[in-house]
Amino acid sequence: MVDSCITMKNRHSNPAQGTVEYLVIIGVVVVISLIVVGLATQTFQDPAGSISSTSTKLAQSTSIIRVSEAVVDTDGNGVLVLLNNSGGTFTINRITLGGTDFNYETAISQGGKRPFSIPQVGSLCSCEGFEGKIKNCELSVSGITEYGLSKNYTTNISVDCVSNAVASDSAALVLPVSEEIISLSSDKNITSFSFAVL
User: Fold this and answer.
1) Are 94 and 165 contained in the same domain?
2) Which residues contact 168 (CB under 8 A, 6 or more apart)?
């Protein structure tokens, strides 16, 4: 009887022990859960790159102009498909890709998209030696809204490097406009001619 009283006394002398054990078990389960969730959602990029990529995608989807597709071939020729996200017509005046400027005078209606020919992109966006890979390039698109406001959109885009950049509908492909040069002769006659900027 004395032994059973001591056993009962020892059992009741640490009433908080069960609570502590329960809390330790819950804590271990929570830590393991956090580790599993962290490993499951971990990206293979560095965190700063992931944030930058996400903000670039957000900027592209909420801006006036969005890049739908972009390809450049190993010869430096490219096709860029632009989508008009604005509330009205947007006229593209200039596209700069890889540090090279191309002039256009093409209106895109609200929600419409158009493929633009990009002949001979600059060395900053060259796909030479990158066929089958993706390259990041800086893109700048300048234009005018239907209300006459000038807008400029600059972002980094992912360009697919291919062996031959060809638009599926070559009739819809927008080519850069030619530049006009005006010169004055000594008799003040104005002569103008056009040439293609490549």
Assistant:
1) yes
2) none
